[in-house]
UniProtKB/TrEMBL annotation:
Protein name, as recorded: Diaminobutyrate--2-oxoglutarate transaminase
Record flagged with keyword Transferase: yes
Compositional bias annotation for Low complexity: 390-406
Coiled-coil portions: none
Protein family (similarity comment): Belongs to the class-III pyridoxal-phosphate-dependent aminotransferase family.
Signal sequence bounds: none
Segments of this protein annotated with the region Disordered: 1-20, 382-407
Keywords: Aminotransferase, Pyridoxal phosphate, Transferase
Organism whose genome encodes this protein: Streptomyces himastatinicus ATCC 53653
Length: 512
């Protein structure tokens, strides 16, 4: 374990070790059973700065949760605190509904300066309720109003929030007028082939389904996707697939909604994750980091879609002036200091080291990510994944009959994948190991490292450090993670070889 270079400092009378257990007990007695992070992370934060959180017991933790990705600059960054103090000292109103203010104007200027130029030149912005799920709801209502259609295209493994419409678009939730499409997932490819071939088949599936008059798909008002699936297990959308998806939707007049709630503001190594592929969506859903650690959510969209009547979508707290000031300061700091590029460099170093660790540790099935959005999928090396039941090829048929033209059977697909020089992911994927992942999370906490779990079976260790993380801190994070993984494997022993993924939908943090 790499020690934290800074010793804990707890002022007299504040944050004593005796306070923490009592606070945690009261929380368990008084708070809802729906609480999530508090169960896996039984700590009581009292101070924080940058990457570091200090608990009431005096212990210090390296925080790679970052408020579920909301803290682009880490905790209490000076530029954020200065922006908040300036508003407080000015005597300006803190809550103004949707009235125009200088603070809001400055935030909008800074936001538009970061958008893809083709979108920013002809864009409108809708200030929503304070959470990302509110922005998703607004985006869905927007495209339905603009197109006059009710259907929605979404993807397996998606997570878009906890309200009714957002849940309908998320993986594992009841779908009402939602058509679920396959998302490219190299390690567990839905077609059993992985790589470019798997991504191509996913795009072809979408294209054929939309063009099938008997496909049973409700006329789509829009398609919503994450450029990197977060809760789904840190799965980056291949750039080529994303460009093809943009072509498919544009050719059919289907608005494309990019959910950048977690991927935005430099997190993936581009200011917005769609920048990696050069795709310009019709709608962007933004929250988390755009508020500089305070609640703020907006929808940015092409002006042609702005067919709403006044009051068609509103929210009491859409005029949060402190969040707009903190958000403008964060956006400017990330842009002016090249933190997206910095995230790409540091993230690639971390991925390289983690891949070297995976080469020596069979319990790591896959390492993936983009920028400082990183995931390690933990598996049972002794248990192959049965994999998908890939439909066999039947020329001229469509997904509605359970078969799909051009999709090879699993054996043929794997052979083609090997012939292309790719990894035989369909044959080598192993059963997910959620028990091991939970043990690693606990061992990390014991070593002063906070990480999140995600993925289809909560078997993916997720790292979301702030973009301000130093090289030394990045090494400390990986040292602690490697030590925790080794300890968890040794502690579980043979028990990990008999675990099964939990039934039903996976646990999610429900950040929205």
């Amino acid at each position: 374990m790499t020690p934290d270079p800074s010793p804990p400092v707890v002022p007299d009378g504040e944050g004593s070790g005796e306070d923490a257990p009592a606070i945690l007990r009261r929380q368990s007695l008084r708070e809802s059973a729906a609480r999530t992070y508090a169960r896996a992370l039984p700590i009581v934060p009292v101070r924080a700065r940058g990457l570091t959180i200090e608990g009431a017991d005096g212990r210090r933790y390296l925080d790679c949760l970052s408020g579920a990705g909301a803290l682009a600059l880490g905790h209490n960054h000076p530029v954020v605190l200065e922006a908040i103090r300036a508003v407080l000292d000015s005597g300006a109103p803190l809550q103004v509904l949707d009235l125009a203010t200088p603070v809001k104007d400055a935030f909008t200027d800074e936001l538009f300066a970061t958008l893809p130029p083709e979108l920013a030149a002809h864009a409108r912005v809708q200030f929503c309720g304070p959470a990302g799920t509110d922005a998703v709801e607004a985006a869905l209502k927007l495209v339905r109003t603009a197109t006059g259609r009710d259907g929605l295209l979404a993807f397996s493994g998606a997570y878009h929030g906890m309200t009714a419409g957002a849940l309908a678009a998320s993986g594992g939730a009841p779908a009402v007028s939602v058509t679920r499409l396959p998302f490219p997932y190299d390690y567990r490819c839905p077609f059993g082939v992985g790589g470019e071939r798997g991504a191509d088949l996913a795009a072809r599936w979408t294209e054929r389904l939309l063009d099938d008059p008997k496909g049973g798909t409700a006329a789509p008002a829009g398609m919503i996707l994450e450029p990197v699936q977060g809760e789904g297990g840190v799965i980056p959308a291949p750039d080529g697939w994303l460009r093809r998806t943009r072509e498919i939707t544009a050719a059919r007049g289907i608005p494309l909604i990019a959910d950048e709630v977690q991927t935005g503001v430099g997190r993936t190594g581009s200011f917005w994750a769609v920048g990696h592929s050069g795709v310009v969506p019709d709608v962007m859903v933004l929250s988390k980091a755009i508020g500089g650690s305070l609640p703020l959510a907006v929808v940015v969209y092409r002006e042609e879609l702005d067919t709403w009547r006044p009051g068609a979508h509103a929210g009491t707290f859409r005029g949060n002036q402190l969040a707009m000031a903190a958000g403008a300061a964060t956006l400017a700091y990330v842009r002016e200091n090249g933190l997206a590029q910095r995230a790409a460099v540091v993230g690639e170093r971390m991925l390289t080291r983690l891949r070297a660790l995976a080469a020596q540790c069979p319990h790591i099935g896959d390492v993936r990510g983009r920028g400082l959005m990183i995931g390690l999928e933990l598996v049972d090396p002794a248990r192959p994944d049965p994999g998908p039941e890939c439909p066999e090829a039947t020329t001229g048929t469509t997904p509605t009959t359970g078969t799909f033209a051009g999709v090879e059977g699993r054996a043929d697909g794997r052979a083609a994948r090997r012939a292309d020089g790719g990894t035989d992911t369909g044959a080598t994927a192993r059963r997910a190991a959620p028990m091991l992942a939970a043990a690693v999370q606990r061992e990390c906490l014991h070593r002063g490292l906070i990480v999140e779990l995600g993925g289809r079976h909560s078997a993916v260790i997720r790292l979301l450090p702030p973009l301000t993380i130093t090289d030394e801190q990045a090494e400390a994070v990986l040292d602690r993670l490697a030590d925790a993984l080794d300890a968890a494997i040794r502690a579980l022993g043979d028990r990990a070889a008999h675990e099964l993924p939990p039934p039903g939908p996976p646990f999610t943090g429900g950040h929205r």
